[in-house]
Amino acid sequence: MKVIRLIRLKKFFWVGLFLSIISSVLGVIVPLYIKNIIDLKNIFKSTLSLSFLSKLVTILVLQTVISAMGNFLISREGERQIADIRNLLQTHLIHLPIPFFDNQESGQLSSRVINDSVLVKNFITGVVPEFITSLITTIGTFIVLFLLDWKLSLLIFLIFPLDALITIPLGNYEEKLTVKSQKSLSDLTGIVTESLRNIRAVKLSEAEENVLVKFGKKLRLLYKLSVKNEAVYAVISPIQSLVSFVLIVSVLLYGGYRVQQSTLTIGSLTSFLIYFYQVIGPINTIADFYTNYKQTKGAVAKIIEILHEKPEKYIVGSSKLKISKPYSLSVRNLCFSYDKKMVLEKVNVDFPAKKKIAIVGSSGAGKTTLVNLITRLYNPNAGSIMLNGIDSKKIDLSQWRSMFGVVSQENYIISGTIYDNLVFGLKNLPSNDEINNAIKIANLSTFLSSLRRGVHEIVGEQGLKLSGGQRQRLQIARAYLKDPDFLILDEATSNLDADSEKKVSLALKEVMKGKTIIAIAHRLSTIIDSDKIYFLDNKTIAASGTHEQLLRSVPKYRNFVKEQFLKTNISGKESKNVGRSLPGL
Ligand SMILES: Nc1ncnc2c1ncn2[C@@H]1O[C@H](COP(=O)(O)OP(=O)(O)OP(=O)(O)O)[C@@H](O)[C@H]1O
């Protein structure tokens, strides 16, 4: 059973279950004592009845204490289970490859970690132990009842087929409902997470109404499903009560007749009724097990689906490879497609140590994709990436990624403080001097001194409290502290005003020293001084060389530059120097 595979139960659970079983067994004995007491002729004067009474009280107290201890141990294990399942899921998720996330919504995944884990826990530490103790109570009770009077017992036995008639079809219906409810709940979580994360975009696009309409639709769907769910329980409960009532009346009528016939004692009939009252709950629990199982199956299927996803391969060999510096990268015949859409075909690029290499091409040409392949966020369909001639597949993934630092137009800022961002992902915490140095180099000193809490100031979700330039300089400071071999600049000076751009450029200049630079850019100022430029066009490298060489010999590149130059000139961002350095334009 998949549910069991998800869970690793500790010994406290088994101790708790054992205590609960003992408590159930004691519960089976109690009515027998009552029968014996009632059947004695002179109940309150007989010493035998007093001895029965004192034993009865002892058993009741013992049963209560043992049951409480059992319940506590099982519930405690339940809480640990929730934590374990959440931990297992989050650990697995964080190690899944990027293509998995391309097809998922983060809100839905959060729902798996937070909500579905609770269902599984309830099943394992609530439904299953109750089922086991109920089974023991029921079997024990029926054995005693059969020994007391088998004919009367047969009447009570009727409850099973009657209950099954109701719960099996409802259980199947419940499973379908649960799958839909869990999906609906995760959709709802997704909308809330998404809209709050992008609250500025929501307001500026005046999309409040859209978000609320979408939210309302999902909310109504969840409400309808929940009502249906409640209706199932609302139907089950009274039907079960009706079945019980009919059976009690039958036992009373038939038992009363037997007492009149003197073939049954009043004590036996009383204990029968007590047993019946006592066993009705466990029988219903056994019947409900199927419904609960079906309900959990839906949630577990979703969790197992995630756990079946293959994580990224971190360690390829048994130990990390020792590769001597300086590092140079080469990309050979790289092909890549997103699903069936071919994006790169037979791409060849070299990144010699300590050189600045630029990749240019129009929007959608595949520049970011190429960098994502180089950093192994995606795996190529064919071709290879080599580090000093060694195939990347032979190198441990974390060793590989530790070589790269990124300064990007994408927002790589995490919630927390500036300090949290500076040390994010660093294996060894930097000293105060190193932090101060990074701040100075990234041109952040003046900004930080204006903050009340300095480096411990909160930056807001995704760095909302920072300007675009400050966010980029924070990434530069982080890259400085990481001290990578390859620095990836992804349009690092885009969307900034002249002053901000100057600060970022100065900071970059410092942090680029001694590094191999991989620059992806549309803007000429970023790439013009590159040692080599690779021009991506029509899914492959159409040409390569210095800026001047390409301008002279590749008409397509010349057109591309002209277009970019015109665009940036219109937006007023490109510097005059760049315009002057474009021979032939
Ligand atoms: N995760 C993805 N799933 C499917 N298609 C994608 C994905 N990411 C990018 N693409 C597609 O792949 C192509 C190349 O995208 P890529 O982001 O690499 O281009 P780019 O040259 O970096 O563009 P830009 O300069 O506009 O950032 C585009 O057509 C894009 O729509």
Descriptive notes:
- The protein is an alpha/beta fold and 585 residues long.
- It has two domains: 2-182 and 223-308, ABC transporter type 1, transmembrane domain (ABC transporter transmembrane region fold); 329-580, P-loop containing nucleotide triphosphate hydrolases (Rossmann fold, 3-Layer(aba) Sandwich).
- It contains 21 helices and ten strands.
- The chain has helices at 2-6, 11-39, 47-94, 98-102, 106-148, 150-157, 159-197, 199-204, 208-260, 266-308, 367-374, 397-401, 418-422, 432-441, 445-449, 468-482, 498-512, 524-527, 547-553, 555-570, 576-580; strands at 329-338, 341-351, 356-360, 382-387, 390-391, 404-408, 486-490, 516-520, 532-537, 540-545.
- Strands 6-7-8-3-9-10 form a six-stranded mixed sheet, with helices on both faces.
- The longest helix is centred in the middle third of the chain and has 53 residues, at 208-260.
- It is elongated and about 115 Å long.
- The two termini are 71 Å apart.
- 33% of the residues are buried.
- Residues 570-585 have low confidence and may be disordered.
- The structure holds adenosine-5'-triphosphate.
- Residues 102, 338, 343, 361, 363-369 line the site of adenosine-5'-triphosphate.
Task: Give the gist of this structure.
The chain is of the alpha/beta class.
What topology emerges from the helices and strands here?
Elements (H helix, E strand, L loop, with lengths): L1 H5 L4 H29 L7 H48 L3 H5 L3 H43 L1 H8 L1 H39 L1 H6 L3 H53 L5 H43 L20 E10 L2 E11 L4 E5 L6 H8 L7 E6 L2 E2 L5 H5 L2 E5 L9 H5 L9 H10 L3 H5 L18 H15 L3 E5 L7 H15 L3 E5 L3 H4 L4 E6 L2 E6 L1 H7 L1 H16 L5 H5 L5
Parallel strand pairs: 3-8, 3-9, 6-7, 7-8
Antiparallel strand pairs: 1-2, 1-4, 4-5, 9-10
Helix pairs in contact: 2-3, 2-5, 2-10, 3-5, 5-6, 5-7, 5-10, 7-9, 7-10, 9-10, 14-16, 16-17, 19-20
Membrane topology: Multi-pass membrane protein
Main location: membrane
Subcellular location: Cell membrane
